[in-house]
Design a protein that fits this description.
Elements (H helix, E strand, L loop, with lengths): L1 H10 L15 E3 L3 E3 L8 E4 L2 E11 L7 E8 L5 E7 L3 E3 L3 E11 L5 E5 L5 E4 L1 H4 L11 E7 L2 E6 L4 E8 L12 E6 L4 E5 L7 E5 L4 E5 L1
Antiparallel strand pairs: 1-8, 2-7, 3-4, 4-5, 5-6, 8-9, 8-11, 9-10, 11-12, 13-14, 13-16, 14-15, 16-17
């Protein structure tokens, strides 16, 4: 019975996502040697056998000697963060990860989320820690990107940009033409973003889910 329900949900999932939204494709990222000059936000590298994602970094130039790069990482298996400083030119190895498009189906009482592989139709359980950062953007029927490391889901990526409906926001004050006027808006996914004053309840807006920022009204 569950398989029939999931298969039916997949067959109709397009109804939940506007055509303009990004769809992911299955892909594999192999181990590649990089150094400090290749570091960028979002890059996932392997340290001591575990996947670490670059959250941010800064480069400190010195009057004498090589520059140093300070990097803040998030361990995608444990959810912890670390900050290390490296000499210019120090090398790393990117993590070998697989990305599989999968449709979000439901959440159980323990907070675990379930997805259906878009190609094999197999059900995949994702622990809350792997989806915590993106959960507020995900709605039933949405096709997301499941990121696997050594067979384990370490991260879930909502499509970006994505179109949501504004379900609650302050009405625009007539005559308020001041540039830069913004207000909070609650979306149909439950998340809140800051929008321009002219955006009304019921409007559809495009959101950059990776940054949590309003992009435009559609």
């Amino acid at each position: 019975m569950k398989l029939a329900i999931l298969t039916s949900l997949f067959a109709t999932s397009a109804a939940f996502a506007p055509a303009a939204n990004t769809q992911y494709q299955r892909s594999t990222s192999l181990n590649v040697a990089v150094d400090t000059s290749d570091i960028k936000n979002g890059l996932t590298i392997e340290l001591d056998g575990e996947p670490y994602k670059v959250l941010n970094f800064s480069i400190m130039k010195q009057a004498r000697g090589a520059a140093k790069t300070t990097i803040k990482f998030k361990n995608l298996k444990r959810g912890t963060t670390i900050e290390n400083t490296y000499r210019s030119g120090e090398k790393f190895e990117t993590a070998q990860i697989d990305r599989k498009p999968s449709v979000y189906t439901y959440e159980d009482e323990s907070g675990n989320c379930f997805f259906m592989d878009s190609e094999s139709f197999e059900e995949v359980m994702v622990e809350f820690k792997a989806i915590e950062d993106q959960k507020k953007w995900i709605v039933e029927g949405m096709e997301c990107d499941l990121v696997f490391f050594k067979g384990e889901v370490i991260e879930v990526l909502a499509p970006s940009p994505y179109v949501y409906e504004v379900v609650e926001t302050e009405p625009n004050v007539k005559g308020n033409t001041s540039q830069g006027y913004t207000k909070p808006a609650v979306l149909d996914c439950g998340a809140t973003v800051t929008v321009p004053g002219f955006v009304e309840q019921g409007a559809s807006i495009k959101v950059d889910t990776s940054k949590g920022e309003y992009m435009e009204r559609v």
